[in-house]
């Protein structure tokens, strides 16, 4: 059943500042990526949060793993496991990354009474010519802070773990111990680092090189530019490598670290315009919405070229990846979400999708996958797929012809028939054991008879390993690994009525790719293997949902949610 509107709970309709200790401000709603039923129009320039208001984040390489946690009743703490990796031999930049990890990985608590999330962002002090950007923020918008408290309160033990004020100090002590650098032992975390350490950090990669080193900059927020610069200078001096030198500069409440020789040129580039003032970047981030506690942005082709240059490899970037991508990690009171957008992907054409068939699965479905508009997608993707098949063969023959001969089919035509307008796999609730599990297939908007023949050909080639119960009905084909389930799939189910399903997937009206897993129904199979320290937290997780949809030619969005009970 198509959901015409995004059914997920509004981040701030449930929690209110009045319900949180010490709160004195009114939080505004947290903006998310426009759902398919909403307008996809984006402002031309992104505005960061200001005092008393919140800005919008809404949601690939991928986002670095981040752990975020709620503090005690008076506040909430966020933690991130690692800072962006920079150069393998630059201790100075690594020191900056370490300090970023301490700021964002160790539990700086912010009181919910300070809900603004205002102030300069790392993008304000990174030059506008950056081709890649990573941001970490433990002082996000007010809506994000409240949503984090609400979500993490559902996870047993989260408050206890992340409310510890000495996590950063423990991290520092562990790094010093493992480094075996006696110089680092001269620094006292409480006296030398904690007093000036801010709540935001960013990393920007820029075009070109200086002195043989890639142009890049780490931006660390600080409350005391002078003290931060002095401390970081002493930290970077701990390196015994004469080639390992770092420039340290300051700008607008941030200390900037670059490889030697890039400090002044970075400031000069910044004087020409910041990344935040770059119209392309700001437009992409506005479309992304509220940037939450972590966000990333890439000029895909330029960053891929940089990565290949650094690794010494040469491989053409596929046309389908040329463009830009942006990602975020954010909270809702009901889930934590990784979300992202792609823009300027000129080789990608809009696909008309719908998650209706996913919602029509039986209510006892524990896991499902749907590809909508697969026949359209294959038209554009087949040339690249064929190249992939030929590369697997290593020049040993025409793989397409071999498959056509073996299966008695025509590619890509028969594959399009099998995918149809909607291709859905589902697994019902069942007693898993030694017997063959029940898995179902539903294909709609296709030549069902021909699709059935293609499946039969695949069965024949399997040599009896695959035997399906099949039912063709008009433009629909149903199949299952065990008798009876195919017939059940032919009857409209009520999965879309489930609150768990709706929360995990949101608006599915334009879904092209969807995945759903009901953790509550299958936890009995994996919880016994979870250790006691994590058992209750894992048990508190309810479902996983992935929703990918097309927003126009060259544009698309995705949302990956982990739902709590």
Automatic annotation (TrEMBL):
Ribonucleoprotein in keyword set: no
InterPro entries per the UniProt record, alphabetical: DUF3352 (IPR021787)
Source species, domain of life: Bacteria
Region: Disordered, residue numbers: 1-68
Pfam families (UniProt xref): DUF3352
Biased composition, class Polar residues, residue ranges: 13-27, 40-54
Signal peptide coordinates: none
Keywords: Membrane, Transmembrane, Transmembrane helix
Transmembrane segments: 93-112
Record flagged with keyword Transmembrane helix: yes
UniProt feature, compositional bias: Low complexity: 28-39
Protein known as: DUF3352 domain-containing protein
